[in-house]
Amino acid sequence: MIKEYLPLIEAEIKKQKFGNQPKSLYDPIRYIMSLGGKRLRPVLTLLAYSLYKPDAKRIVPFAVAVEAFHNFTLMHDDIMDKAPLRRGKPTVHKKWNVNTAIISGDVMLAKVYDQLLGVETEKVKEVFKTFSACVSEVCEGQQWDMEFETRTKVTEAQYIAMIRQKTAVLLGFSLELGALLADASMEERSALREFGINIGIGFQLKDDLLDVYGEKKSFGKQVGGDIIANKKTFLLIKALAAVKGKDKLELEKWIRAKKFDKRKKITAVKAIYDHLDLAMHTQKKIDSYFTKGFHALEKSVTDPIKKTELKNFAQDLITRTS
């Protein structure tokens, strides 16, 4: 089923022109949408819809709207993170400039609302209400993420709450949208949203892990970028809480450093993470959230066989390397 959906998603993305003139406004949108990726969110929308109805092809444009919103957040997130790479290619603000990336992202969000206007008239209000709530949470999560960069202390609970908003609620919305468009009950929508939020938290924790231990070729982003930026990831928060002695002094030195060799910093901080066995601790936390997600999915009363593909898709996220 997923193999059937991915070509439909890519075909719809190619069909979407978003706009024509000025080219400098719309070319960055077409560029970031063409970079590929897992298409995780639109696939989840289609899989959720298919739990209830067999004609998922008809909602592909709305699933792609979710992907466009996701890419809008990436475009602006990359500016704030000063990220040089996205999916192994130059980020929009690097290929063009910051101002272009900002305004292209703005019009991209407007086009998402245009795309969602195509849902059945009786569902437009509910779709917009649900989507707008999701957008607000994503923005709140991003703001918390930026504020955490200047805080001396961030707790694990605060961090999980932040990634829930910044990353996980969009996965929850993706699934809920599919269920909503398929006329599923509020109970079913709620179960799928909870499933999505929990696997979304696990997904972001996996991203934190791959930022340190992933391979650049498969990861598609700058490995060690979070370390360079002193981002309060799960690993750094756990390290700051547990580190002692020489390792503590070493970690604090690298965090305070204003000028440094990036490769040396990544190597040094990674060595401290290794001493604390943080890869294992992070993987355990990832597994715990995916387990919560699978329990939420069991609340759905849909055919267990139909849920198998959704379970398998989520399971692949646990073991991903990019």
Please provide a written account of the structure.
A hairpin with a 2-residue loop joins strand 1 and strand 2. 75% of the residues lie in helices and 1% in strands. Strands 1-2 form a two-stranded antiparallel sheet. It has one domain: Orthogonal Bundle (Farnesyl Diphosphate Synthase). It is built from 16 helices and two strands. Helix 3 runs antiparallel to helix 4. With 322 residues, it is mainly alpha-helical.
Distinctive features:
322 residues, mainly alpha, Farnesyl Diphosphate Synthase, two-stranded antiparallel sheet, 1% strand, globular
Give a short summary of the structure.
The chain is 75% helix and 1% strand.
What's the SSE blueprint?
Layout: H1 2-15, H2 23-34, H3 40-50, H4 60-81, E1 85-86, E2 89-90, H5 92-95, H6 98-116, H7 121-148, H8 156-181, H9 186-213, H10 216-219, H11 225-228, H12 234-242, H13 245-256, H14 262-275, H15 278-298, H16 304-318
Antiparallel strand pairs: 1-2
Helix pairs in contact: 1-3, 1-4, 2-6, 3-4, 3-8, 4-6, 7-8, 8-9, 9-15, 13-14, 15-16
- In CATH's first tier, which class applies? Mainly Alpha
What class, by secondary structure content? mainly alpha
Q: Please bin the fraction of helical residues.
A: over 70%
Characterize the overall form. globular
